[in-house]
Design a protein that fits this description.
The complex is a heterodimer of chains A (113) and B (111).
Chain A: E1 5-7, E2 10-13, E3 19-24, E4 31-38, E5 42-50, E6 53-57, E7 64-68, E8 74-78, E9 87-94, E10 103-104, E11 108-112
Parallel strand pairs in A: 2-11
Antiparallel strand pairs in A: 1-3, 3-8, 4-5, 4-9, 5-6, 7-8, 9-10, 9-11
Chain B: E1 3-5, E2 10-14, E3 19-21, E4 24-26, E5 32-38, E6 45-49, E7 60-61, E8 72-74, E9 83-90, E10 99-101, E11 105-110
Parallel strand pairs in B: 2-11
Antiparallel strand pairs in B: 1-4, 3-8, 5-6, 5-9, 7-8, 9-10, 9-11
Classes of the chains: A mainly beta (113), B mainly beta (111).
Chain lengths: 113, 111
């Protein structure tokens, strides 16, 4: 059974650019969530998608957006990149009910220069 | 507001000694609680859920609603237990799937 797949693994972008990250969940999982992990702030929730609808949103500026496709694959977009956006972005999938917990991907390491 | 506190950033014990990683939470209701572990160069993975009342790799965690704690315990530490451990909670909102994580505790098991 394939795990959660995130692409690309590494990205280097320049301030002001935009970036799109991709996540393919475990087959059958309809919920996809995104987290930002930094040494200072730890793991912070960005948003969750379920059946192509955003169901939850964290406290991030509107530059951070996402979407989910009919096959449950999800993309996250960050526009007008800032140096502070440098982080490990983790995608996690689940069956959708809060009791199950997540399966995480390996993450995309974004560096903004 | 939902909050998870792991008071120890670093914890070091000797092999064979008991281990307890502390987790306290703040939530008005009945949260679901989890422990996640991240071994060196591996992805974050679910260790156990309080709802399952299971023991994984010798670890157990009991939810104490009175003390709002969910401490992770293991009676005899092994070197392979060295890792980063995160406590997390998910609130009871119907259909919500959002975890709030603690800052993590880095556990080192000394030989």
């Amino acid at each position: 059974k394939a795990g959660v797949t995130q692409t690309p693994r590494y990205l280097i972008k320049t301030r002001g650019q935009q970036v799109t990250l991709s996540c393919s969940p475990i087959s059958g999982h309809r919920s996809v969530s995104w987290y930002q992990q930094t040494p200072g702030q730890g793991l912070q929730f960005l948003f969750e998608y379920f059946s192509e609808t955003q169901r939850n949103k964290g406290n991030f500026p509107g530059r951070f957006s996402g979407r989910q496709f009919s096959n449950s694959r999800s993309e996250m977009n960050v526009s007008t990149l800032e140096l502070g956006d440098s982080a490990l972005y983790l995608c996690a999938s689940s069956l959708g009910d809060r009791v199950y917990g997540y399966t995480f991907g390996s993450g995309t390491r974004l560096t903004v220069v | 507001a939902q909050r998870v506190t792991q008071p120890e950033k670093l914890l070091s014990v000797f092999k064979g000694a008991p281990v307890e990683l502390k987790c306290n939470y703040s939530y008005s209701g009945s949260p679901e609680l989890f422990w996640y572990v991240q071994y060196s160069r591996q992805r974050l993975q679910l260790l156990l859920r309080h709802i399952s009342r299971e023991s994984i790799k010798g670890f157990t965690a009991d939810l104490n609603k009175g003390e709002t704690s969910f401490h992770l315990k293991k009676p005899f530490a092994q070197e392979e237990d060295s890792a980063m451990y995160y406590c997390a909670l998910s609130g009871p909102v119907q259909g919500a799937q959002k975890l709030v994580f603690g800052q993590g505790t880095r556990l080192t098991i000394n030989p």
